[in-house]
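Tutorial sheet, problem 5. The two components below are modelled jointly, 358 residues in total.
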Amino acid sequence: MTTPRGFLSPLVAGLGLGATLYLTFLLAGHGLGAHGFFRDLTAALAAWASPFWATENAYLSTFLDEKGPLSTWVAWEIAGVAIGALAASLATRRFYFKIERGAGTAPATRLVFALCGGTLTGLGAALARGCTSGLGLSGGAVLSAGAFVFLLGFFLAGLLAALFSKRLWR
Amino acid sequence: MLGLGALFGFFLEAGGLGSPRKLTAQLSLRDWTVFKVMFVAIMVAAVTLYLSDLTGLLAARQLKAPTPFYWAMAAGGALLGIGMAVGGYCPGTSVVGLFTGRLDALFFIVGMVGGVFLFANYCGELQGLFFAGKGAERETLASLTGWPAWLILLALAGIAWTGFRLGSRIETRDGGVIDALNLQQNRE
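Model answer (structure tokens):
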């Protein structure tokens, strides 16, 4: 396997991200997001599986759009994220198929925990009405009080949980 | 939005935030990349937005600002923190993960859909928490504390600087950050 190029320094990456975030506010009047796309996707999948249940659900029904989950701004943004990540990793020889995990963790174990972690994340983001990007970064950029409470909860709980989940990553 | 997303994805990947090992290493305080990238991004955006508002380029009032629901946001944040510790990603980084070849990201994403579905299924029971502790619309740290925005920015910069110093010290002590090469070779 060819040698991958090193990552940008956190300062440079943060600068780029911050500039992108600013630009987004400037051009769109709002920040970046991510959870919204998966929420809309869930609503669409639910509607496909059971239109009655979806339209009757107090929460998901509000996110049902006849134009579909790909018509929102966040869908286009997520498509962009995919393209940007693909481009960056291909250009630096950092793209390769893998199940990233600690050296002592079996692939299947990793996948099960990925599923579990994702479930907690989906639940949490729905509850918080946003995620690290939409609420944390974008909310943080406008100094939102809710954003910082979210980030505090995120880091505190994450730090604590990491004490127990460390073994997955060794 | 596609272009802005592409920049977002680019910088996330280029910073190493598509790697669950790097992301979780932040939570075990071994690799402070996440903290540094996030804080710099927030500071850069917050300062430029503040200056834009000051100079009349961009009215802060017209920017989308969330209404706080303190309990739900704290609880939601906590769930995301645990989700990252266990699952290795957050919503945005999972997309970066997937499009850099990480199959585990796909499972995380499927899990997320499941999580949203769970919320929807129990939204009645979760209603109380969902709407609890509602704050003033568009409440900021400035409006909440009564401090002027520039002072808040200064305080945040101070926290960022402290974190940078502390984090870098810990990283050096523990053998440096997880870089692209040791990700590929799967060793620390």
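Marking note: Chain B has a mean pLDDT of 96. Full credit if you identified this.
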